[in-house]
Structures are given as structure tokens and as C-alpha cells.
Amino acid sequence: MKELIKVESHGVSGVGRAVYAAKDISKNETVIRSRQLKILPHRDKFSLELKGKHILIDQPGVLVNHSCQPNCYLVANQYNAYDFIALKEISAGEEITFDYETIESQVVGFNQCHCGSDLCRGAMNSQIPNLIEA
User: Cβ contacts of residue 112 below 8 Å, gap of 6+?
Assistant: First the structure.
């Protein structure tokens, strides 16, 4: 799966690194299979919520950024972490994203959303229903 993606500096100052498609990816294809590194005592800006616990996952999954109009969704996997699955066809060079609010009961680390999508909600913790059963 690593040949599907590449990690590079994000074009927006202050964002750090991001994950991009290294080649075209088909809808429903597994883009990233992450593994749990550890369970954290509380949520932080890098943790993901899984079965009521806050976990830290390995790279590149931990580097995937938020979008209100994502191209991936998350499914719990056998490694006590998540698989990132393509919601749609993803073109080579396109940033890999998921909607943080689909798995988090509360997003921490930032309040304003700057994803730039046409469907941007503008703020985190907008109380959308969790879409993925964790």
C-alpha cells in the first residue's frame, strides 16, 4: 500500500507534512492500513478515538489531515487502529483526507477549519453525527 501514497510537506504554512496519492486510487480501495502505537490517557491533537479510547497510530496515518469533504473514511481494523478507505476515485497528487468529526466525539488541537472545501463547516465540533461505528 505504501506505493499508493507519499508523504510531503504541506503547501500551507504551519500545517507540517501531509499524505498524497502517489498514483490514481480506486473507490473503496484501502489507501492506508494503520497500526496502534499506544493508548493515550486522554485525547490530544494527534489521537484518534476508537472504542471509547484515545489511540496514537503509526505513520503515515497520523499525518492524514482533516477535510469537511474528505476522500477517505475510516474502518476499524485488526491492528486496533483504522484502515483509510477511498470514498471516491482519488487522483495522483491529491491530498489524502478524512473528516475528523466522523470518529471523534470532540476534536482538540484546533477550533477553526481551514480545509477550503466547498462544504467547509468553518469550525470543528459542529456536532455532526459520528458516521463510522468505532
Answer: 122, 123, 124
Largest distance between two CA atoms of the chain:
38
User: Is 72 inside a domain boundary?
Assistant: yes
How far is residue 77 from each of residues 70, 86, 87, 116, measured CA to CA in Å?
20, 15, 17, 30
- Which domain, by its residues, includes 14? 2-102
pTM: 0.88
Distance CA 53, CA 67 (A): 23
pLDDT in tens, 42-90: 988 899 999 999 999 999 999 999 999 999 999 999 999 999 999 999 9
The answer to whether residue 16 sits within a structural domain is yes
Contact at 8 Å (CB) between 113 and 122? yes
